[in-house]
Amino acid sequence: MTERDELDMLVAEFVLGTLPASERDYVESRRREDPEVEALIQQWEERLGRLADEIEPVQPSTALFAKIEKALDRVESTPREVIETSSVVALRNQLNRWRWSTAIASAAALVLVAILALQPQPEPQTQSFVAVFQHNDQQPAFLLTVDLKEQRLNIRPVTAEPRPGKSYQLWIKADELGPNPRSVGVLGNDFALDEGALRSYDPALLKEATFGISVEPEGGSPTGQPTGPAIHGYLYPTDRNNQ
Amino acid sequence: MFSLQREHRKVINRIIRDPMKPDPHQPHNNNANHSPPSPEVAGDRLSGLILRVAQRDREAFALLYQDTAAKLLGTALRILRDRGWADDVIQESYIKIWQKADQFQPGRSSPITWLVSIARNTAIDELRKHPTGRTTTGEELDEMAGKQATAQEQLEDQQSVNHLNHCIDQLEKDRRDMVRLAYLNGWSREELANHFDQQVNTVKTWLHRALKQIKRCLEP
């Protein structure tokens, strides 16, 4: 498959809805920067749009529109446009780098395979979470486990190997932390990382955050932001007993 | 399960009606005019409203909501299967519609597809981020088979041939079902893999083949 075909299939699956969260985020970020991606999305939306013909309308409660109008008033009263126009370029550039535009061709390689337990409780009791970082469809590169109660992390390589003259660096990104990812730490030669490195973060934030691992010059990123190709993942609960 | 279709449609419709149907005591807030205008006229009207919303016209926003909220709520509810959750997603969707209206291009997108896409994307993003919030059930399959038949009967505009349905009908049965479960019910690759007893990678390959086949079939 050519790169263009791959992009077309990535977009097709985005519109179909079957992409994992990490790849959906990737397509969403690219559509904002690349008119070609936006055009491909529109084409697929038009192709598949008639599938929605059969969706039965459901009348909303009358209260819903009042809620929406209130929310809109709030949105309108915040000076969103000022922020957008002043810092939009810088913001996009940083976002771009974080989303590893270098890894476009292997976008499909960002698959995050977490076999998820479908639990009826929205809040399972467990405090133990895991994120899988993949290099390709078959093999996980890293496993990150986080005990949210103790705020202890453990990272271990699965297929990732030490790279001479390079270091792996773990990043965290969340809306609350601003537009840029923050460094959690640089992995040592044995892939070790201070298990308390996440202690300063709120557990609720950790649950929603995106984690990334990038390849950096030895000793870590010189700029304080990811500079090399990266892979990322989210935390998922490990406990399946609550099903 | 899928071949039951027509025979079981009534039963299935009854089963699925409960969470999906509006409260009958709830006043309807759609237009008094119950005979729907032709899709083209309706489309022009919606496009006009979206363009006005892009000019920050709150009255147009209210009219757009009146005309489309039921469709968008139906879309989100089918994916999330929880009324409160779907309501939240609809709220977020209309805020996005307000903010993105200036990006709507009438020549390139049909207005209802553009609006439904915003609700679908919001619902699917929610679902992928909180996959434990919903359970999938076998009933969804029955529902899907049942609704397929009713939808054909209910097609408002019989003259407008739905090429997509024709193309989807040409897919192998499992792939057809996968495409529909993904698009309409928000099933992930993993959920499809579990249900169809296949590897996730196999599902991905099948989906890609199906999508390519649909694309070819729709080409003029």
Labels describing this entry:
heterodimer, A: 243 residues, alpha+beta, 2 domains, 4-stranded antiparallel β-sheet, 8 strands, globular, B: 220 residues, Rna Polymerase Sigma Factor, Chain: A, disordered N terminus
Chain-wise SSE layout:
The complex is a heterodimer of chains A (243) and B (220).
Chain A: H1 3-16, H2 21-33, H3 35-48, H4 62-77, H5 80-98, E1 128-134, E2 140-147, E3 152-157, E4 166-173, E5 182-186, H6 203-208, E6 210-217, E7 230-233, E8 236-237
Antiparallel strand pairs in A: 1-2, 1-8, 2-3, 4-5, 4-6, 6-7
Chain B: H1 5-20, H2 39-54, H3 58-80, H4 83-100, H5 111-129, H6 139-154, H7 163-169, H8 173-185, H9 189-196, H10 200-218
Helix pairs in contact in B: 1-6, 2-3, 3-4, 3-5, 4-5, 7-10, 8-10, 9-10
General description of the model:
The complex is a heterodimer of chains A (243) and B (220). Chain A is an alpha+beta fold. Chain A folds into 2 domains: 77 residues, no CATH class; 121 residues. Helix content of chain A is 34%, strand content 20%. Chain A is built from 6 helices and 8 strands. In chain A, strands 3-2-1-8 form a 4-stranded antiparallel beta sheet, with no helix packed on it. In chain A, strands 5-4-6-7 form a 4-stranded antiparallel beta sheet, with no helix packed on it. In chain A, a hairpin with a 4-residue loop joins strand 2 and strand 3. In chain A, helix 2 packs across helix 3. Chain A starts with a helix and ends in a 6-residue tail after the last strand. Chain B is an all-alpha fold. Chain B has 2 domains: 97 residues, Orthogonal Bundle (Rna Polymerase Sigma Factor, Chain: A), CATH 1.10.1740.10; 83 residues, Orthogonal Bundle (Arc Repressor Mutant, subunit A), CATH 1.10.10.10. Helices cover 70% and strands 0% of the residues of chain B. Chain B has 10 helices and no strands. The two termini of chain B are 34 Å apart. Chains A and B meet through helix 1, helix 3 and helix 4 of A and helix 3, helix 4, helix 5, helix 6 and helix 7 of B.
